[in-house]
Amino acid sequence: MKHFAYMEYCGKITNIFDSLFNNLKSSRMARQGGLLKVVGKLEDLSFYKSKDGYLVRTKGGVSGDRIANDATFQRTRENGAEFGMSAGAGKLLRTAFRNLMMTASDGLVTSRLTKLMTDVKNLDAANARGERHVHEGFDLPEGKAVLKGFNFNVKAVLSGILYKAYTLNTSSGAIDIKGLIPMMDISYAPGSTHMSVKAGWSKVDFSSGEFETLISNTVNLPINNATTDVGLTFASTPALATGINVFVLEIEFFQEVNGVQYSLKNGGYNSLAVIEVV
Fold it and tell me: Is-above-0.90 flag for pTM?
């Protein structure tokens, strides 16, 4: 009986693979059927699980050597080079503000920043296609304007969280929010009892890949009807000689339990945005 069951099992596997090969004759991708689901590689076949179910595909496409050397793929090489520079610029900015982003960012911030950096790179009119640079775009007022207003957490846009006007001194980095009343001026997270406000100032050189980031003092307030003048300052200014100055403002929410404030883990209401670029 065990031998019969084993042969029957092998027969089912054979039927599954026969079906897959038949589907793959006319397509590079096919859906896995039957009870047995496979994940992994077998010679020129790749078995994997996706949001559409268990799929299998054949190895295909153009070789890397041909893409790197064939004149037909000149545009592909140019696009790839510029995409790499845009992705690198986005990573540099994320690294500069990593400590703040840990509590205020969304799952798509990487791709959104890459797209933004691509838009900045496209402003470079000095270099040929394939050699355009993000730092050239940031040399222009239009490039700085693209980054200003960027929200690291699209689920908590700063303009939808903070309804009170603020001022920024770009020489010292000081930010003032006069007469803030949390219950009236803040769209606070459900269950939160307190909030914190702080700022970041980074000088970023997208040409050399260097940056220097400073974090201001933190102002922690209970969410009530009390009026507070919020003042955020920096102990110094960035010493990096070259680059652009990027100023960000963060609002984070907490819940107090027995005298201890706990950060709301979902982070859905924490806001971090670029408020100025000079």
Answer: no
Within-domain flag for 63: no
Place of tokens 């592909």: 76
CA-CA-CA-CA dihedral for 13, 15, 16, 20, to nearest 10: 140
Instruction: Kindly state whether residues 222 and 138 are assigned to the same domain.
Output: no
pLDDT tens digit string along 38-76?
566 665 667 677 766 767 666 666 556 654 555 555 555
- Does a structural domain hold residue 97? yes
CA angle 258, 260, 261 (to 5 degrees): 125
Kindly report, residue by residue over 239-268, the tens digit of the pLDDT: 999 999 999 999 999 999 999 999 886 668
Domain, as residue range, for 83: 69-147
Do 82 and 132 touch, CB atoms closer than 8 A? yes
Domain count, the chain: 3
